[in-house]
Write a structure and sequence with these properties.
This protein is mainly α. Helices cover about 55% and strands about 5% of the residues. The longest helix is centred in the first third of the chain and has 17 residues, at about 15-30.
């Protein structure tokens, strides 16, 4: 999964670790519950809106996936303001 994410990260503007996490989570969901049908692209869309793929307010993603500083919540008013 790592090489897949590395190949796509720059073009998609998604950090490699976040992209790996989206793909892995989608695969686990597919194996555990085949009727779920959530895709990595759906998870990436949520990740973009909710945390800018783990980089909201200059946060960064560690190699183990931890985000520093932690992102607790994004204000929906900020999201709405970008869409108006």
């Amino acid at each position: 999964m790592h090489s897949w994410a590395v190949e796509r990260s720059a073009a998609l503007q998604i950090p490699v670790i976040a992209l790996e996490a989206y793909a892995y989570a989608a695969r686990v969901a597919e194996v555990e519950n085949p009727n779920c049908r959530i895709s990595w692209t759906t998870l990436a869309g949520i990740g973009e809106v909710e945390s800018h793929h783990g980089t909201y307010h200059h946060a960064s993603i560690a190699p183990n996936g931890d985000v520093h500083p932690p992102i607790r919540a994004c204000a929906w008013t900020e999201v709405a303001a970008r869409c108006t």
